[in-house]
Design brief:
mainly alpha; globular; single chain; about 80% helix
């Protein structure tokens, strides 16, 4: 695996994205409107919000992320540029990793926008360390991107690809989403330190498994 090729693919996708800014604007607008609607739907300063807050925050990332992930490989397929990418002197692992880096940059941009907005709109007081909260959330988003990018590559030739992606990816994302929400709740509501949160180890183990599977199958998936 060549890290320079991985970064070149990610840089190419990010350059194209920042020229049009269509996906970025849509993801940020979706995040803003979703949090705003939840803000009006929930009672102000509700004690229950401390418990459900991490779930609400992840709701935004799941659906915003799925909208972004669906474009990673599907866009290449629709524009006919995937064949050219396959003919370039890069392997399937570099292509998949490049898409992972690209998707991670997009979802981290959504995180950078949504977390301060969530805290401001809901007047949420994080009981634990803000750094621990960001680390848990970023780790969960990394797992989300790894799984979602691989599934996007697998189903890019299917009909109704956007719908198929959600149907196939959601069950595979549960081992990331559920432990991350539990870990976030322990940091945000209970104030637990990161070292004492066992769910973090579960997320790390699942990321390792799915990353290994993605790398082993990347060439076969892209060739099909």
């Amino acid at each position: 695996m060549d890290a320079r090729k991985v970064l070149a693919i990610a840089r190419k996708d990010l350059r194209v994205e920042f020229r049009s800014r269509a996906t970025i604007q849509f993801l940020l607008l979706f995040s803003f409107l979703t949090l705003l609607m939840f803000n009006f739907a929930s009672p102000p300063f509700s004690p229950a919000l401390r418990e459900v807050g991490p779930g609400l925050l992840w709701f935004v990332f799941i659906f915003a992320g799925m909208l972004g992930l669906s474009r990673a490989f599907i866009k290449e397929k629709e524009l006919g540029t995937l064949e050219g990418l396959m003919l370039a002197p890069v392997g399937g692992v570099e292509i998949v990793l490049g898409k992972v880096v690209y998707n991670l940059c997009l979802i981290l941009l959504v995180e950078l926008f949504s977390v301060p907005l969530f805290i401001a709109l809901f007047d949420y007081r994080v009981a634990g360390s803000m750094l621990d909260m960001v680390l848990v959330l970023t780790l969960g988003l990394l797992g989300f991107v790894v799984v979602g990018s691989f599934v996007s590559a697998v189903i890019m030739g299917a009909r109704g690809r956007e719908l198929v992606l959600q149907v196939v990816a959601m069950p595979l994302l549960l081992p990331v989403v559920i432990p991350t929400i539990l870990a976030l709740r322990r940091v945000m509501a209970d104030g637990a330190p990161l070292a004492r949160i066992g769910e973090v180890r579960l997320v790390l183990a699942y990321i390792t498994i799915m990353s290994t599977l993605s790398f082993l199958l990347s060439d076969s998936v892209l060739e099909e």
